Amino acid sequence: MRLTRCAMSNVPVLRAPRANLTGFDPKAFAAAAGTPKNDPWAQREAWRYSGPFTRWNRFKGSFPGLGIATVAFAVYCGYEYLFLKDDHHGHAEGGHGEEHH
């Protein structure tokens, strides 16, 4: 017997467990099946998770060239910051200087 609540009110109702019409008990089947001691497919499936197919290697191949591009961009930003100074910033007039007529 199990105790459930009625949908219309909050009164507990005592009900009998449902009858199993087929006679099949999935919990008993799972317990009886267990895990096999010698899985015949384990060796054939092992290649999927080793060598070039490991999770890290699959992730690493997702973004080809990202490392090289990041380093190249950082070098360019450093070069621009150190060597490419813009001499036109900071004029009080807001435009070109008086030497441009």
UniProtKB/TrEMBL annotation:
Locations listed in the record: Mitochondrion inner membrane
InterPro entries for this protein: NDUFB3 (IPR012576)
GO biological process: electron transport chain; mitochondrial respiratory chain complex I assembly
Keywords: Electron transport, Membrane, Mitochondrion, Mitochondrion inner membrane, Respiratory chain, Transmembrane, Transmembrane helix, Transport
Membrane-spanning residues: 63-84
Gene Ontology cellular component annotations, sorted alphabetically: mitochondrial inner membrane
Membrane association type: Single-pass membrane protein
Broad class of where this protein is predominantly found: mitochondrion
Biological role stated in the UniProt entry: Accessory subunit of the mitochondrial membrane respiratory chain NADH dehydrogenase (Complex I), that is believed not to be involved in catalysis. Complex I functions in the transfer of electrons from NADH to the respiratory chain. The immediate electron acceptor for the enzyme is believed to be ubiquinone.
Family, as annotated: Belongs to the complex I NDUFB3 subunit family.
Protein's UniProt name: NADH dehydrogenase [ubiquinone] 1 beta subcomplex subunit 3
